[in-house]
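If you are new to this repository, start here. Below is one unmodified record pulled from the training split, so you can see the exact layout before writing a loader.
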Amino acid sequence: MFLSACATPVPPQSGPSPIPATQTPSATAVMTSTPTLIPTPVPLFFTDEFNSDLGAWVSFQTGGAEAPSVKLENDLLRIDLPSPNTWYYAIHNAHEYSSVFVRAEFSGTPAGSLGVICNYDESKGWFEFNIASDGTYSILFGQWLAQGIAQYTPIATAGSEYLTAGKLDYEIGLICRDDTLFPHINGKLFRKVDVSRYGLTEGKIGINASSFEEVPMTATFDWIQVEEPAQ
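And here is the target side for that same chain:
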């Protein structure tokens, strides 16, 4: 496995930084891990309101000169990113899903992006749906090329009538079913994305936060909900 068993944030090794979610070329990034312990069994479908512990989450960062600060505060998951061009990931390590609807409510300072992840598989890759503070969204395919080296391939990047530049306070959702992604913003489905060419149809879910050039960037997640999508 790429993720080691340390209990505190590990500063990143030197290496190329990931591109912001608003850019379109492929990019690579160096990974460092900050996993936590797995707790007692977690239901397949659940809501985490971040008011107890982070025992089921495994986290890591790509890019950035400093490690993020991550803590539970006032029934929120708070993530402080002190360095520019830093991506923080948290993967829920309890279950894998072949059909899932992952939703989260978040807010952040207008200098980065926040998102949700599905079909995370260390050997095959993952999909992430991000909303950026400039009023755009992106859907990316991430894949580990080697231990500690990830590549991000843009699938879709655009603006939306549901997004406002300078704002980073939304409910975001992503249905991953078979070879199709269904992104949602504030409960509204706004497109369908065919991802059959990637051959990635199951995996774990997660969340992410990233900083751009302006730092510090602070993100908070109110809750995350994992449910079976309606047919």
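Two things worth knowing about this chain: Residues 1-26 have pLDDT under 50 and may be disordered. The chain has one domain: 27-161+168-227.
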